[in-house]
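Re: How this chain folds, sequence and tokenised backbone to follow
How to read it: Take the token row as a discrete description of the fold.
Start of record: The labelled sequence and token lines come straight after this line.
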Amino acid sequence: MTEAERVWLDDTWSTSGRIGEVESLGVLSSHRGRSLETRLLDAFEEWLAQAGVDDLVLGVLAGNEAAIRLYAIHGYLPTWMYLSKFHGRPRSR
């Protein structure tokens, strides 16, 4: 983790007021690689900005490296982690 990320994380809960949250953002695999992800994210951020929302929280599944890279390019940093337990899926230890 860089020093800039550490400083940012020290102030994680300081926001500008309204916070937008995206639980999931997806593009069909057959349509990936055409910049649709970037255009969708840019449009969403612009729409929220026009509504007076500057701070954003975005969910991404652990291991989805392509999405994590995309969000990092757009300035998103890790802030918290969700833990899940799904019926019927093996648990790892």
